[in-house]
Automatic annotation (TrEMBL):
The lineage of its organism: Bacteria, Bacillati, Bacillota, Bacilli, Bacillales. The gene is mreC. GO terms for biological process: regulation of cell shape. Involved in formation and maintenance of cell shape. Pfam families: MreC. This is Cell shape-determining protein MreC.
Length: 290
């Protein structure tokens, strides 16, 4: 009996909704029971629609966040690769420029002297620009010997101090000292255009014996008070003493003053070479006189 009533109630509701649908179709105005029923249904639908939309939006946002993260990682890797490639390109361009300058330098030197310039790469150096020594990748097997002069395209750098089979230690001019404990050798120097000639009382002459690390200047002593050397002159090696060959540019005269006892003058020379950035050097090989 109860089942029959339930069936009758359901059939009644179905008929009611069918009848309402037919009644509402095509009409623009409704009676208040119809409005109440329509609003009630819409409100009930909104209760289920909003949470469902929120849940759907949450999962959609999570999916988008994952996609953005993956794209961000890809872009970050591309940016890193680009920065690395740019750095390598700049390094190669820098190296190519230095090699071109080195080639032009050797070609120029062939016209003024018969020295042989052996190019070597610096393989070790102290981070201190005034540490005093560097290591290059040429040694005994390449014919390198102690006391050979070392320079770059700008000017004098120093001399070969010790040699092994495959490498050489180079003592830079920044390590020059006139103390007895130091193993540095003084550089016999003259002025370009006012070259000193042995046995003649003319031309400029002095001995570069130390380096002022605070001012970054070479100190040339034993300059005669009557010497024609002037501020702005270019100092070069004289070749006397047979340690450093003649004609290698050293630097520019920046000051001149009386020495300790007033007998000779002391000259400050600003080096041409930059001792902070040394990548390649030339070891000067002087042909033996037969």
């Amino acid at each position: 009996m109860g089942n029959k009533r339930l069936i009758v109630l359901m059939l009644g509701l179905i008929c009611f909704f069918i009848l309402m649908g037919l009644t509402l179709s095509g009409r623009t105005s409704f009676y208040w029971p119809e409005k109440f029923l329509k609003d009630s249904i819409a409100w009930t639908q909104s209760l289920f629609y909003r949470p469902a939309a929120s849940v759907s939006g949450f999962f959609e946002d999570v999916s988008k966040l994952k996609t953005i993260h993956e794209e961000n990682q890809i872009l970050k890797k591309r940016l890193t690769d680009y920065a690395l490639a740019t750095q390598q390109l700049n390094s190669l361009e820098d190296q190519n420029k230095r090699y071109k300058e080195a080639l032009e330098f050797t070609e120029r030197q062939k016209q003024v002297s018969n020295y042989r310039y052996r190019i070597a790469d610096v393989i070790a150096a102290s981070p201190d620009p005034y540490n005093g020594t560097i290591t290059v990748n040429l040694g005994e097997k390449d014919g390198i010997k102690p006391n050979m002069a070392v320079m770059n395209v700008d000017g004098m750098l120093g001399r070969v101090l010790t040699v092994t089979e495959f490498t050489s230690n180079v003592q830079l001019l920044t390590d020059l000292s006139d103390t007895q404990a130091n193993k540095s050798k003084a550089i016999s120097a003259t002025v370009k255009g006012k070259e000193y000639k042995s046995g003649q009382n003319q031309g400029s002459y002095g001995m570069i014996q130390s380096f002022d690390k605070e001012k970054g200047l070479l100190i040339m002593n034993q300059v005669d008070v009557n010497d024609r050397l002037e501020i702005g002159d270019t100092v070069i090696t004289s070749g006397l003493g047979k340690v450093f060959p003649s004609g290698i540019p050293v630097g520019t005269v920046v000051s001149r003053e009386p020495g300790d006892f007033g007998i000779t003058h002391k000259v400050a020379v600003k080096p041409f070479a930059d001792f902070r950035h040394i990548y390649e050097v030339f070891i000067v090989e002087v042909p033996e006189v037969k």
